[in-house]
Design a protein that fits this description.
The chain has 78 residues and is α+β, with helices and mostly antiparallel strands. The protein has helices at 17-29, 39-44, 61-77; strands spanning 9-15, 34-37, 52-57. The chain has a 3-stranded antiparallel β-sheet with strand order 1-3-2. The longest helix has 17 residues, at 61-77. It is globular and about 30 Å long. 18% of the residues are buried.
């Protein structure tokens, strides 16, 4: 049985609303459930909350960071 700690969410990325949506989609395409924090405020009032966070469960944190870092290195190589 999973405990409350197994369901805690951890931030893996923070950026503009469109960057956060891209990262969320990337993670979900790699079978990692992700959620956005402040996504609605970032879209409706970006001047109030310009940063949107991408959250994953604690047990997916390492894999998510690895996927994000791999993506970041591919982008910088181009």
């Amino acid at each position: 049985m999973k405990t409350k700690e197994d369901f805690s969410l951890t931030e893996v990325f923070s950026g503009t609303p469109w960057e956060a949506e891209l990262i969320k989609g990337l993670l979900e395409s790699n079978e990692i459930e992700a959620a956005l924090k402040d996504g609605i405020m970032g879209t409706l009032a970006p001047y109030l909350s310009p940063e949107v966070s991408v959250l994953v469960s604690q047990d997916n944190y390492e894999k998510a960071i690895q996927i994000i870092n791999t993506r970041s290195s591919k982008v910088s190589d181009d």
